[in-house]
Amino acid sequence: MSSKCYRSEIIGLFGCPVDENATVVIMEAAFRALNLNYRYNTTLVYPADLETAIKALKAFNMKGANITIPHKVEVIKYLDHLTETAELMGAVNTIFIKDGETYGENTDGKGFITSVHENGVEVKGRRIVVFGAGGAARAMTIELARAGVSHIAIVNRGRERGEALVDLLNNKTSAKAEFILWDKTYPIPKETNIVINATSIGMYPDPARPDMDYSTLLDSMIVCDAVHNPPQTPFLIEAANRGCKTLDGFSMIVNQATISFKIWTGLDAPIDVMKNALTREFNQ
């Protein structure tokens, strides 16, 4: 009689859209490298079905899930618990199951800060402009504030969400934050050190770039994009052409994925395997 286990541990990715999200490439490569009987399932979940999807985590005895746009904030109301980090950020990108209950964590900000440090970027005392005020922006700006940035400008098309993030930053961190309504082409203030696109603008197959005055970019500025597919977005290409140092979403997605991997499996992630897998995927 065979003693082989024919049941795989399942982890999901819930979002809308998700077709362009390459996290499955990273995770499946890591599972194979460590000979784990895990599967990572990229799942299209419409906003109206989010509560049902979260309930399904328990019903299917899943290990957990990644949460991506547009669910990172909305998902909180359907979870049993939040970690201290997720509660502070008001956004969740990773869910895990413990003792039959769901916990929300956020690894986006930690992944971003790790990428920043890996690329030798100093953030302490710097002035930051961030496009967007969703879950990714919340995670990134909270971690930037914790790392010592002095000023954060939140540029967002929606006033309510933008002002809510600014209030969070001003009340919970030592950084000074201000809201700027993004209702026209935005010029980057010359005293800015780092510019970040924390929206999904430019994600495949969208060839757009954030509506800003690119002539105001200075070669002393560092320009970052949370979008990982494609690694070189029109936003980053334009910034590089103007002499800016750029940081793509490739490193961010890998670094946050390694943290989630450890949460779900209890094992250290094979980060080199994960990086190589994503590199091959985008160089095919």
Describe the 3D structure.
The protein folds into 2 domains: 130 residues, Rossmann fold (3-Layer(aba) Sandwich); 139 residues, 3-Layer(aba) Sandwich (Rossmann fold), CATH 3.40.50.720. Helix content is 36%, strand content 22%. It has 9 helices and 14 strands. The strands form 3 sheets. Strands 2-1-3-5-6-4 form a 6-stranded mixed sheet, sandwiched between helices. A 6-stranded parallel sheet has the order 9-8-7-11-13-14, sandwiched between helices. The mean pLDDT is 95.
Features of this protein?
Rossmann fold; alpha/beta; 6-stranded mixed β-sheet; 14 strands; single chain; 6-stranded parallel β-sheet; 284 residues
Write out the strand line-up for the largest beta sheet, numbering strands in chain order: 2-1-3-5-6-4
Biggest β-sheet description: 6 strands, mixed
The CATH superfamily of the largest domain appears as NAD(P)-binding Rossmann-like Domain
SSE pattern: EHEHEEHEEHEHEHEEEEEHEHH
**How many β-strand runs?**
14
Assess the beta-strand content as a share of residues.
Answer: 15-25%
Specify the CATH class of the largest domain: Alpha Beta
Domains (count) = 2
Our measurement of the CA-to-CA distance between the termini, rounded to an integer number of angstroms, reads 43 Å
Kindly name the structural category. Answer: alpha/beta
> Helix segment count?
9
- Fraction of helical residues: 25-40%
Architecture per CATH nomenclature, i.e. the level-2 architecture of the largest domain:
3-Layer(aba) Sandwich
- CATH topology of the largest domain, anyone? Rossmann fold
Note poorly predicted spans: none
Rg to the nearest angstrom?
A: 19 Å
**Dominant shape:** globular
What would you call the quaternary organization? single chain
